[in-house]
Amino acid sequence: MSPETVLDNSQATFNPQQFDQYVMSTYGRFPIAIAQGKGCTLWDTDGKSYLDLVAGIATCTLGHAHPTLIKAVTEQIQKLHHVSNLYYIPEQGELAQWLVEHSCADRAFFCNSGAEANEAAIKLARKYAHTVRGIENPVILTAHSSFHGRTLATITATGQPKYQKNFEPLVPGFAYVPYNDITALENAIAQYSEQGIAAILIEPLQGEGGVCPGDLDYFLRLRKICDETGILLIFDEVQVGVGRSGKYWGYENLGVEPDIFTSAKGLAGGIPMGAMLCKEFCQVFTGGDHASTFGGNPLVCRTALAVLQTLEAEDILSNVIARGEQIRKHLRAIAQQFPDTFTEVRGWGLINGLQIHSETDLTSITIVKEAMTQGLLVAPAGPKVLRFVPPLIISAAEVEAGMETLKTVIESVHN
């Protein structure tokens, strides 16, 4: 290990039994404890290194211990890390300006996570429906296999029953349609037209739902329907935004603009932050309608601004496009080599999925666990999809190394 990756004693003596005794078991954790990281490499408490193609699940935009992040956090915490939104926060204004100038939005609200950002969008859409369109019991349409968060409203919005089980009664006012199915969408709009549809909440690319990109014709039709009916179009960009798709925002891959969109995960490069952004015409929040104690504090805003400015100044989006094409080329070769095991490669930029054949007994978790033993971190996106979401700074050499390891892993699980 190099000098900068030497572990301190507290890390080296990590006790998983002690952890499990005191921490709620809300995660199915893999049996490693990450202690340190640099760039696209992580080290566990035993000193073993891993190539990180997970990035905190599409969160560590600039990788680990990036000089820009270190500088921004250090300088800001020495100056001011938190102050109430009862006062003006200059860093928040600067970040909002950057986001507005680099997107279709006019206004920004800051919070702490993707779920909170989607909660804000749901509340904004409901108030707009009540106060502007006169809808008494508005409905929000979302897609099957979607994922929008873990709060009560956002698991209701999430079109996956496994996340809703045992948390009933769910929040009323949501209905679900198949993703990329325009006929089903039109039928649902007709079904709920009398009650009134406030919004359509949808991901430009479904991440947790299996890395499924939106269909261009579907989204063009979706935008036209919303324009004709007054329904608000909300995009959940929590996983696909902030450059991960090869563009700043996922909607840019589809040629349409949402009325509202949400961001989190990679926005501050791993420092907890979320944002809900909207166009001026639907900004109906007034004082007291919504708030967040920690949302948009000076520390997270300065960090997010540093991340975004680095993406722009260092043309990291070009790397995202190139490395994404490199990964998909390797994944297609793997799929061709094992046609009975893998059926499809899909994704944008540096969010990519490898579909496992539904009829094989092989699961994504099996491959993830074997890859871990060989120093490669990849993530599942459901039981039959492998997900690849590395830091946006990953190099060509690191991609080559990771894909070679993946090929070895897949060969081993076949034997």
Structure description:
This protein has 415 residues and is α/β, with parallel strands linked by helices. Helices cover 39% and strands 17% of the residues. The protein has 2 domains: 3-65 and 315-414, Aspartate Aminotransferase, domain 1, CATH 3.90.1150; 67-313, Aspartate Aminotransferase, domain 2 (3-Layer(aba) Sandwich). It has a 7-stranded mixed beta sheet with strand order 4-12-11-10-7-5-6, sandwiched between helices. Strands 1-2-3-15 form a 4-stranded mixed beta sheet. Helix 4 runs antiparallel to helix 11 and helix 13 packs across helix 14. The longest helix has 22 residues, at 316-337. The chain is globular and about 60 Å long. Mean pLDDT is 95; it is low at 1-6.
Task: Please provide a brief summary of the model.
The chain has helices at residues 9-12, 16-22, 55-58, 67-79, 90-101, 114-131, 152-157, 161-164, 182-192, 216-229, 298-313, 316-337, 364-373, 396-414; strands spanning 34-38, 41-44, 49-52, 107-111, 139-143, 174-177, 197-202, 205-206, 212-213, 232-236, 260-263, 274-278, 342-348, 351-356, 376-377, 379-380, 385-388. The chain is an alpha/beta fold. It folds into two domains: 3-65 and 315-414, Aspartate Aminotransferase, domain 1 (Alpha-Beta Complex), CATH 3.90.1150.10; 67-313, Aspartate Aminotransferase, domain 2 (3-Layer(aba) Sandwich), CATH 3.40.640.
